[in-house]
Amino acid sequence: MTKQLKRTVLEQANAWIESNQKVVLARVIHTWGSSPCPTGSSMIINEKGDFFGSVSGGCVESNVIAECLELIKNNNLFKQIKFKVSDQSAWDVGLACGGEIKIFIEQINS
Amino acid sequence: MKIQILKEIIQKKSSKEKFAVLTNLINGNSEIFEFGKFLSKDFESSKKKIENYHYLKKNGIIDGTQIFIQNYIKPIEVIIVGAVHISQYLVDLFKNLDFVVKIIDPRKYFITEERFPNIEIINGWPEEILKKLQTNSNNALITLTHDPKIDDPALRHALKNKFFYIGALGSKKTHIKRCERLKEAGFSEVEIDSIHGPIGIKLGGKSAPEIALSIVAQLVSETHKL
Fold it and tell me: How do residues A20-56 score in pLDDT, each as one tens digit?
């Protein structure tokens, strides 16, 4: 038996769900140029705004959290978000490293 | 994503299976993929492409589709021989990396739960223990006792079973003697040269945590050459 060393993003998501919280999973599905986190990187957000994991080196997280909370509020199931360095909004949220990323956010539901 | 899929991913990851998670970006449906598994209509028309991406361990949106694939590969298993001070720091460093760690030591007073909480420890001789474990090129071996009667059988096992990384602690002199013994045991020069000895990248430090860091750095760098 291999013992558990650390709780992963998905295990944390499961723990939040078991304590009856709404959870959104955000995953990097596409990257161009120099983006800090590789495709497949993931982060989870609960309805209180707590988050775990990462989808960039801290550049776009706050924006992703806001989008996830919006998803819960509007009771939507999923959404694609794209951060482009040429967009003014991307500069605002700080993806100044010259990369572009596409993130898929989705509610974990029963 | 359905909670059942999430639970299935967690379970499969913990049982160290190789699989992928497919997500249809148009309707948000996700499912688990494994070679030979029947796919639902959300994904079946792209089966060939999915198999190819999974084979190449490539994550991303599959070309010409709206399917995202995320691959989960078997984690690398690191076997540490010697429940020594350096091993305690190794366990700490490996904790944040995706490796599965086992420690073997025949010396009972070294290999205790108090010294190694939350990690698989095996009290016994490497020669006997390794025979019982399933090992292959997905394994790494770190020998730290620099006692030939403990380390050498483990090194011989790792060479025979083509571990992708083998590292042995000990000075240059100790390593030369070790190589001579392995040569006598019938291993080729190429095989013996594949052992990282003295173990670790050059950091310049001599303390236990510094040596541990230099070993982990070397192992991670070898992992990315795979």
Answer: 999 999 999 998 876 677 899 999 999 999 999 998 8
Q: How many domains does chain B have?
A: 2
Q: Which of B57, B72, B87 is the last residue of a domain?
A: B72
- Nearest residue in chain A measured CA to CA from B77: A2
Claim to verify: residue B63 and residue B151 sit in the same structural domain: no
CB pair distance less than 8 Å for A1 and B95: no
Same domain, B62 and B112: no
Give A95's strand partners. none
What tokens were used for B102? Answer: 């086992």
B60 with B85, same domain?
A: no
Residue A84 DSSP SS3: coil
Q: CA neighbours within 13 Å on the CB side: how many for A53?
A: 24
* B15 contacts chain A (CB < 8 A): no
Domain boundary among B72, B102, B125: B72
Q: Predicted ipTM? A: 0.84
Closest CB to A11: pick one of B1, B3, B10.
Answer: B10
Sign of the torsion formed by the C-alpha atoms of B184, B188, B190 and B192:
negative
> Are the C-beta atoms of B61 and B25 separated by less than 8 Å?
yes
Range of the domain at B26: 3-72
Q: What is the DSSP letter of B56?
A: T
